[in-house]
Structures are given as C-alpha cells and as structure tokens.
Design goal:
Length: 385
Amino acid sequence: MMKFYNDNRLQIVKENMGKILNVEINSGVDDSYNIVIEPDFIKLADILSVVFATCNKFMLVFDSNTDGYFKDEVSRLLSSTKKMVSSFTFTAGEDNKNLTTVYKLYEKLIKEKFERNDVILAVGGGVVGDLAGFCAATYLRGIRFAQLPTTLLAMSDSSVGGKTGVDFLSYKNMVGAFHQPKLVYMNVNTLISLPEREYLSGMAEVIKYGYIYDKEFIDYLRDNANKVLDKDYLTLEYIIFHSCRIKKEVVEKDPLEEGLRAILNYGHTIGHAVEKLMEFKLLHGECVALGMMSAARIALSRGLVSEKEFSDMKDILVSFKLYRKINLSEIAFSKEDILSATKSDKKMQGGRVKFILTTEIGRAEIYRDVTDEELMLGINEVFEG
C-alpha cells in the first residue's frame, strides 16, 4: 500500500501530523491502510488526494445527524481535490441500517455513474460506517471506501477492521462482508457534538479492550474517568489510539475472524440479543455493557474471575453511566426470549454459542461449552423482577 505520509506533496503535513497507525493486512491481497487521528478535518483533502489519487468521484454518506453537523464543512474541503463530490443522507438510527437504505444508495451511485475506481466516504457513527462499507463491498463487486468516524464507538472500534453489514429482520448485522477501508480519518473534536448518552455508549467498547487485552488500560480508564467525562482532548486521543492499537494487533493476526478475532465480540452475544429485543431503543454500547456484565457473572461462576474483579467491572461501567439492572416490568419480553435470541446470533458454530469469557483482567478466551443454565445465570445478572 502507498504510505501517503511519505508522499512528497505531504511533507509539511507529515511534520504536523497527529497520531498514525498502519494496519497491515495481507490475506491474498494487500488490504493495509492508515488510521489518522487529528483534531480537525484540515488535512483531510490532502490525504484523500494521495490515497485516492486515481479516483474521479467521491460519494459522501451521512445520516440525518451528521449531515447537519459536517456536510457543509467536509464538502467544502473536498472541493479542493478537483474531484466530483456527491452526497447521500439517510434517516439516523439502527432501524434504518437495512437493505432498503442500501437499495437507495445503490440507486444514487448508479444514477451518478460511479465506477469501480471511485470512492465512498462514510461520515458518521457505526451505523453509517457499517452501511456505507457494505455498499462499497457489494457495488460493482467492490469499490474503495474510507471511514470518517464521528462517534467514540466508531473511532474506538467499528471503523477499524473491515467488518461491514446491515441488519435483516431485526437480526443485527446478519447480512455483511469483510471489506477493509483504504483510510480511517478521525477528527476527535467531532465528539464535542455528541449528546452525553451516545458519547458514553462508546466507552463500552473502550472498556472491552482493557478487559480482553490490557489490564493497565483498565487502570488508566479508572484513574482518568473524570477527564473522559469532560471530553479532555489528550485523554480522548490516548484512549482512541490505544483502542485502535489493540484492534489493529488482533485484526492483523486474524482478519477474517477465524480464531483470535472472536475475542472482540466480548459482551456482544447477549448484548446483541438484548439490542434486537429492545428494537434498538438501547444504544449498542449500553447493550454491550449488559453483555459484559452477563459474561462476567458466568466467568465468576466458573471461578475464572474473583468477586473483586467482578465488582470492579460493575463499578467502572457504572462510573461511565453504562450499567443498571433492567426490571422486567420495563420491557415487553422475557428472560427466556433473551436466551432464545442468543441462539440466533451469527456467531453460532455447530449449533452452539461461541462465547467469550475473561480468564483474568486483560485476557479472554473462546468457549463453546457455555450451557443454557449459565446463559440464564448471566441474563439474571442484568435483568430483575
């Protein structure tokens, strides 16, 4: 892959560049790319001009939230590339991450005569990135795309790694493809625009990385919780960079989730079941937090973690407003419905749930022997009444 920061046209940019990670993926073809972490969009046009030097058109994809915040600025900056810039906006929300919206984006790409050499740019959170990436993976059997994440969840997790997809009949990410972006450009200050609840939802994925991979990261998050809550720039830059570094290391070893990469699904099996049954009224990170507590309860019952480690996880999730027990009177489904929904998870293998449990803080393993009784034990940890 061309390292854009070695291009002669960008020497001045290079000297003032923010943090950069290079994700090295070679699974038959070179799918490597750069993650750039910046405080603004100022360098975006120059970088895109190098990474996508041969393209003629950009399709910016927004949802109805990011359209209002970023469309004018990004479109104006991209006008300097001398390439045609079009845009597509869909109504924000997980319930619009579906094939109907994909159909509309396909139609826009066809009408605008986008060719295989052209580029889709996803500007938004995980929903935008997942949908735009899936369109890029499938339109003309695959065109290039870049991620411009604007939420903490997307910056720390979903924009990196090449998982794309949409929901189908309320089943989370049931239709999708592995398709690596050619660039991930993060403007950390876009997080200022996020409502508190959506911002903190992203912390579930950040915390997840500490529990599955790096104990010292958990200590850092606990010690710097107030700075995270205050959206301190340097703290955010650090936790995003560190989360991406962990994901990069895992994805480089297992780009197609044939083994190790499955640990990134920690908290997601029960979390996705709850997300589906709640009809996406809870945010993704909130559901992952519930899934992590469920998994921690199962790990505790197996003697894999101590009472203190279990309690500490609850405390750190509570400190970021990510965890409270849900009373069954608040919802329209039962604990048995949650158990059943876990069996529809796309991560099932051989008819059994592929479940991730921590064996200590900073280490996780894949288990295929988690019983229905253990799953119900985990569900009982987060639902009461």
